[in-house]
Design goal:
The chain is α+β, with helices and mostly antiparallel strands and 285 residues long. 34% of the residues lie in helices and 29% in strands. The protein is built from 9 helices and 12 strands. The protein binds adenosine-5'-triphosphate (ATP) and pantoate. Belongs to the GHMP kinase family. PoK subfamily. One of its GO terms (biological process) is coenzyme A biosynthetic process.
Length: 285
């Protein structure tokens, strides 16, 4: 192929999650639920003598993307563009890893299926310590519910068939690797409870209620985040915190009605190529 391939991958907000370690990064991951967003990353890959990752015109190091190139056995220049803040709970590294895997497939010697590429991106993201469930959620799109952890064929993913306007405001980042490396027992218990409750009543409203309960029980709320969520609720809306960032997301016009000036997007169907064609669908086994 002569033309360099490109892909769009949605951002992904996790509302709640539990952590499931495993020696094999393809089997490790999280259970939980989230939202795939129409704000995401676009990724272009070009074969190059030495690998380089360029994020919004700046040369950066992004271990999940570098891990994908290593696993594919290719050196390339990966160009990433995103309007999303990095490290603020939108899964930018997962989206970049998945976009790299999907597009770099065209410049490797071996051809791989979508699920094989998702598994590679998931493993690279887990090994980098920057995410556990974003890649599989982004691959599926919509409102992904991660019933079982891991990339394909190990994980099991379901979803809610809804479309909704989503608003968000971000006050800053939280370091995912540091939080995942700390004491996460209470967090995982809260995540398991939230998932059981959502599966009992699988609606977007329940997802929001359980996400809020999780954020409180896991002790992750900052003052600014808590204040903003309360303001949205007082204005009659639904909001919670994006894991893992100092970010609040709301359904519909929740933040606007509470007097904030949020970024507006919507729930997104999943990755697509430069022609706008849907490229992946993660099969639930
Ligand atoms: N300007 C930057 N700010 C923060 N991280 C950056 C930047 N440039 C590159 N990186 C790399 O991007 C990755 C960010 O991963 P991190 O998990 O913190 O954020 P994220 O992928 O946006 O997801 P989330 O906040 O949902 O966990 C890290 O590997 C980090 O080294
Ligand atoms: C760990 C995490 C919250 C980081 O964004 C996400 O990858 C998830 O839900 O597993």
């Amino acid at each position: 192929m002569s033309r360099s391939p490109s892909a769009f991958v949605p951002g992904h907000i996790t509302g709640f999650f539990s952590i499931h370690p495993h020696d094999d990064p393809e089997r490790a991951g999280s259970r939980g639920a989230g939202l795939a967003l129409s704000d995401g990353v676009s990724v272009d890959v070009e074969r190059a003598a030495e690998s380089a990752v360029v994020l919004n015109d700046q040369r950066v190091s992004m271990a999940a993307v570098e891990g994908v190139l290593d696993r594919l056995g290719v050196t390339a220049r990966v160009t990433i563009h995103t309007e999303l803040p990095v490290s603020a709970g939108f899964g930018v590294s997962g989206a970049s890893a998945l976009g790299t895997a999907l597009t770099a497939n065209a410049i490797t010697e071996d051809d791989r299926t979508e699920n094989e590429l998702i598994a590679i991106a998931h493993a690279a993201e887990v090994a980098a310590g920057t995410g556990l469930g974003d890649v599989v959620g982004q691959a599926r799109g919509g409102v992904p519910i991660r019933r079982e952890p891991g990339g394909p064929p190990h994980g099991q993913i379901d979803g809610l068939f809804v479309r909704e306007r989503i608003e968000y405001v971000s006050f800053g980042g939280l370091d995912t690797a540091t939080i995942l490396g700390g004491d996460t027992a209470a967090l995982s218990r809260a995540g398991e409870d939230a998932l059981a409750c959502l599966l009992e009543q699988p609606t977007l409203e329940r997802f929001m209620t359980e996400s809020r309960r999780f954020a409180r029980k896991a002790g992750l709320l900052t003052e600014r985040v808590e204040e903003t969520i309360t303001a949205v609720q007082n204005a009659g809306g639904e909001a919670s915190m994006a894991m893992l960032g100092e970010t609040v997301f709301a359904l519909g016009e929740g933040l606007t009605k509470a007097g904030y000036d949020p970024t507006v997007c919507h729930i997104d169907g999943g990755p697509r190529n430069e022609c706008g064609q849907r490229t992946t669908f993660l099969d639930a086994r």
